[in-house]
UniProtKB/TrEMBL annotation:
It is found in: Cytoplasm. Its main location: cytoplasm. PROSITE patterns: IF5A_HYPUSINE (PS00302). Pfam families: eIF-5a, IF5A-like_N. GO terms for molecular function: ribosome binding; RNA binding; translation elongation factor activity; translation initiation factor activity. GO terms for biological process: positive regulation of translational elongation; positive regulation of translational termination; translational frameshifting. It comes from Meyerozyma guilliermondii (strain ATCC 6260 / CBS 566 / DSM 6381 / JCM 1539 / NBRC 10279 / NRRL Y-324) (Yeast). This is Eukaryotic translation initiation factor 5A.
Length: 136
């Protein structure tokens, strides 16, 4: 996608990392060139801030980012055991580090049914949030 077509809150690949655009500005065309687009984006997995400066005509890769909710079945050895919509189990997502991981662990230990939101892009996956499953 051309730089000039990117929008704030959209996704873009910077330094081969999938990022969410938090700020962007364009500079006027100079005497010898094209308008430049300055992107400030945050890595959707690490939360690190990345910046990029490219000509507005430059093509940039846009990652295919998807979110999926899974039911949490178990937490085993630092990994979440999740149930997919098809009833299969998915055991390859690590429990997130820090406060989110601690909260998921303690709510799960309290015997609550949890739904965990997993974001995936470019072959990587991470848990980004959770909520208590509605009681049936």
């Amino acid at each position: 996608m051309q730089c000039s077509a990117l929008r704030k809150n959209g996704h873009v690949v910077i330094k081969s990392r999938p990022c969410k655009i938090v700020d962007m500005s364009t500079s006027k065309t100079g005497k010898h060139g094209h308008a430049k687009v300055h992107l400030v984006a945050i890595d959707i997995f690490t939360g690190k801030k990345l910046e990029d400066l490219s000509p507005s005509t430059h093509n940039m890769e846009v990652p295919n980012v998807s979110r999926q909710e899974y039911q949490l079945l178990d937490i085993d050895d630092g990994f979440l055991s999740l149930m997919t919509q098809d009833g299969d189990t998915k055991d390859d997502v690590k429990i997130p580090e820090g406060e989110l991981g601690d909260k998921i662990q303690s709510e799960f230990d309290d015997g609550k049914d949890l739904l965990v939101t997993i974001i995936s892009a470019m072959g990587e996956e991470a848990a980004i949030s959770y909520k208590e499953a509605p009681k049936l």
